[in-house]
Write a structure and sequence with these properties.
391 residues; six-stranded parallel beta sheet; alpha/beta; Rossmann fold
C-alpha cells in the first residue's frame, strides 16, 4: 500500500501565492506532492497587517509548515513596508514558533551591498539610508536569526537575487528590463560596456529546494542560503542578447555613464512631481531606485547551497537558456493586454480631505525611516516569543 494513503497528509500554508515564487510553489505542491496539501489564502482571508487574522487562521487551520514569499511593492511607503515585510513576516514566525513548525522565508539580495561572491553572512548596515524595502527585509533577517537563537524557531531563510520565470503578472526586475527593450524605451545602454555582473535566481527551481528543506528539516533549520545560478551574468550581454532575439535596432551600443544616468533620473523625478501636482498620474519604474545596480556588480556565492544535500533538478538551465521561452510568453501576454500602445492615461489624484495617519502608526513609520536599528533593538528587548493565543 502507498505510504501517502496510510499516513496523514501534511498541510502547508503559502503566503504570497499570487506572486511569481508563490505561483510556482502552489503548482508544484498541487501536482507533484500528493502527500502534501497546501493552502494560500488571499489578503482578505489572512492579512499580514492584522495580528488577529494571523492568530485566528493558525488557531483554526494549524498548518504543519509555513512558507512566506509575500512582499509589498518596491516603492511602498514606510508604514506598509514595515507592517507587511517586517511585522507581518515576524508574526507569521511567532505563529510557527507557537506550533513548533518550520517557517521558510523568502528574502532578497536587496539586503546585500555591491561586491562579488557575497556570502550568507554579508549584509548592508541597518540605517536610515536604506530604501523602505531593503530596510524591512534586512530587519526581518535579523529578527528571524534572533528568534532562532533565543526561542529555537525552526526557520530557513532563502535569499533570492534577480528572479526570472514565467507567469509573473508584475513588470518588475528582469521583466522590466525585457519590457523596456521590447517597447524601445531604452534607446541606449544604461550600464557599463562590460563587467557589471549580477546573480540570477530561477523561480521554477525554488519549489524543489523548499520541498527538500521540508524533508530534511534538521540540516536546514536556522540557516540562510543564497539560491542563485552558479554563474553570474553580464548585464550588457543580457541586454544585447534580448535585442538580438527580437531583431531590434535599439538599444544602441552607446553606454551612458552613471553620473549622466543619475542626473537624467533626478530630472525625470522633478518632472514627474510637477505632473503629479497638476493631477496627472505619472511615475518612473520602481526599479530606478536601484539605478546604481545597473553600474555596480553584485554576485552571490552559492557554495553553501552546493555543499548541502540539495541537488539542482536542472543544472543546465540559466537565464540565457530560458530567455527564448520567457520572451515568447511575455510578449504574447503584453500584446494581449495592449501594453505596447503609445497612449498615456491620466488620473486626477487629490489628497484633499484625506484622513491623517493615526499617531501611533505615524510614530512607528517615522522611527522605521530614521532609526531602524533603534526600532529593531526595542522590538527584540520586548521579546519576540510565540503567539500563545494560537494554542
Amino acid at each position: 500500500m502507498n505510504n501517502s494513503e496510510t499516513s496523514p497528509k501534511l498541510s502547508g500554508l503559502i503566503i504570497g501565492g499570487s506572486g511569481l515564487i508563490g505561483g510556482y510553489l502552489l503548482h508544484y505542491f498541487k501536482t507533484k506532492t500528493p502527500e502534501i496539501d497546501v493552502r494560500s489564502p488571499n489578503s482578505k482571508k489572512l492579512s499580514l497587517r492584522d495580528l488577529d487574522d494571523i492568530i485566528s487562521y493558525f488557531k483554526r487551520q494549524k498548518p504543519d509548515f509555513v512558507i512566506n514569499c509575500a512582499i509589498t511593492a518596491i516603492k511602498s511607503d514606510a508604514l506598509l513596508s514595515y507592517e507587511v515585510n517586517y511585522q507581518g513576516s515576524i508574526n507569521l514566525a511567532r505563529a510557527a514558533l507557537a506550533l513548533n513548525i518550520p517557517y521558510i522565508h523568502i528574502s532578497s539580495a536587496a539586503t546585500l551591498p555591491p561586491g562579488e561572491n557575497l556570502t550568507e553572512e554579508d549584509h548592508l548596515p541597518l540605517d536610515s539610508s536604506l530604501s523602505n524595502y531593503a530596510k524591512s527585509k534586512l530587519m526581518t533577517e535579523m529578527t528571524l536569526r534572533h528568534m532562532h537563537e533565543k526561542h529555537g524557531l525552526q526557520y530557513t531563510l532563502i535569499r533570492m537575487a534577480i528572479v526570472y520565470g514565467a507567469h509573473d503578472h508584475k513588470i518588475q526586475g528582469i521583466n522590466r528590463l525585457l519590457f523596456n527593450v521590447v517597447d524601445r524605451a531604452m534607446p541606449f545602454m544604461l550600464t557599463k560596456k562590460k563587467g557589471v555582473l549580477h546573480s540570477y535566481s530561477n523561480a521554477s527551481k525554488v519549489p524543489y529546494f523548499i520541498h527538500h528543506i521540508l524533508k530534511n528539516k534538521d540540516e536546514f533549520s536556522g540557516k540562510h542560503y543564497h539560491f542563485v545560478d552558479p554563474e553570474p551574468v553580464d548585464l550588457a550581454q543580457l541586454i544585447l542578447t534580448i535585442k538580438a532575439y527580437m531583431n531590434l535596432k535599439t538599444p544602441r551600443e552607446i553606454y551612458i555613464p552613471y553620473r549622466l544616468a543619475k542626473a537624467g533620473n533626478n530630472f525625470m523625478n522633478l518632472v514627474i512631481k510637477f505632473f503629479n501636482r497638476i493631477g496627472y498620474k505619472v511615475h518612473v519604474p520602481a526599479e530606478m531606485i536601484f539605478l546604481e545596480n545597473f553600474y555596480m556588480t553584485q554576485t552571490l556565492s552559492c557554495e553553501k547551497l552546493k555543499n548541502s544535500s540539495f541537488i539542482d533538478p536542472n543544472p543546465e538551465a540559466t537565464i540565457f537558456t530560458e530567455l527564448p521561452y520567457l520572451i515568447k510568453y511575455y510578449i504574447a501576454r503584453w500584446e494581449h493586454l495592449n501594453m505596447f500602445s503609445s497612449f498615456s492615461s491620466k488620473k486626477f489624484s487629490s489628497t484633499h480631505g484625506a484622513k491623517k495617519m493615526p499617531d501611533p502608526a505615524s510614530q512607528i513609520a517615522e522611527t522605521f525611516i530614521n532609526s531602524p536599528s533603534k526600532l529593531l533593538d526595542t522590538i527584540h528587548k520586548k521579546g519576540i516569543g510565540p503567539l500563545k493565543e494560537i494554542l
